[in-house]
Amino acid sequence: MPPADLKSFPAGFVWGAATAAHQVEGGNVHCDSWALEHVTPSLFREPSGDAIDQYHRFGDDVAIMAGLGIAAYRFSIEWARIEPEEGFFSTAALGRYQRCIDACLNRGVEPVLTFHHFTLPLWQARRGGFTDPEFADRFARYCERAAKALSGFKTACTINELNLPLFIREGFLKRQETEKGRARVAAAEAVLGGSVDHHFLFTPREAILGQGLAAHAKGRDAIKAAHPDVQVGVTFAVQDEQAEPGAEALRDQRRQDFYGVCLDAVKGDDFIGVQTYTRVVAKLDGTVGPEAGHPRTVMGYEDRPQAIAQTCRWVWERTGTPILVTENGWAGDDDHRRRAFVDEALSELHGAIADGVDIRGYFYWSLFDNYEWMAGYGPKFGLIGVDRTTQQRQIKPSAAAYGEIARANGVGGARSAKVVDVEALSSGAPVGL
Ligand code: BGC
Is residue 86 annotated as a catalytic residue, yes or no? Predict the structure, then answer.
């Protein structure tokens, strides 16, 4: 019998955790981020290097997940490995990703594939990245080749956080308006052979709304042509946008400019991936940011577990399209707070589902402490820590607690997280998939 105060989720709700190839695999040498990480001075705090070597540890990592009770793994396949030179598709790279899918299936973990998560093959970035007029066709060709080669997955995301540059680019460029910043941009542009706009994160608005949305649509159609039964969607970064009384017009404008314009284009897809980390408040003085005095995470975000349910409610109201929470998480060293954050976020989501919002699954970001892009290995989002000198995995209490939630298909109730022994969970294979 489940505890009386357990907030049960609908049958079939997907309990997962997420990562992205560049952040965990290591040695992703043919992509644009790798190149930008290695110029001097760099926009990136440190290079990704071996990351957490998931390239050689995928099987063990999935065994750990399965042992914890986490039922689905959202990971990305890396275009720069699959097509390292234009037109050359590596059957070896595709074969490895098939073995990753199989490793999930063998452990009873549902694989959820992302086809693009921030990185591009360097050759595509040199052609203009998303600003290249042929970008959508090239992306669709890659999706087609990968989808035809891979099988066994039921859910796929085309592009991760397609809308993110709409709200980070301007601030990013402003911050580079110093002597050091200009030198970092110049070094990046030298290796890209063109504007810094050619990296996904810094893509201009018109390219996101043009080639970006077209790439999603063409990529989706290519995946569906190979696998008509696979559920395909795109994911968006959605902040919980709120307003002080009197500042609602600013909030509404931001909602439209950063999210609405993309949501309207994908209404009616199989699902929309919602990724939320925080809330921002539009103020009467025209500024927007975290509420003054509110606790923050190490990312500088307002620590706000309620935000994800708010954004899901809003996306549902706007689109009527089923939602997968493809990312939500908390960064910092205080694992007690991480546990509490997840509990609170899930309680709020439970309320939203009870109110009729069609949310089909939740993927905690991230399964591991990993490479946090420009911030390097500083911020720690993981349920599982990693000693990067030995690559030993260290399961945190939040991982065991989340596994218990997944097994119980519900949050709350008198559950106590068991202590989990990582050695017992891993397959014992030294290296391999
Ligand atoms: C991205 C992840 C990133 C996370 C935490 C999302 O924007 O999809 O790659 O690590 O947020 O910042």
Answer: no
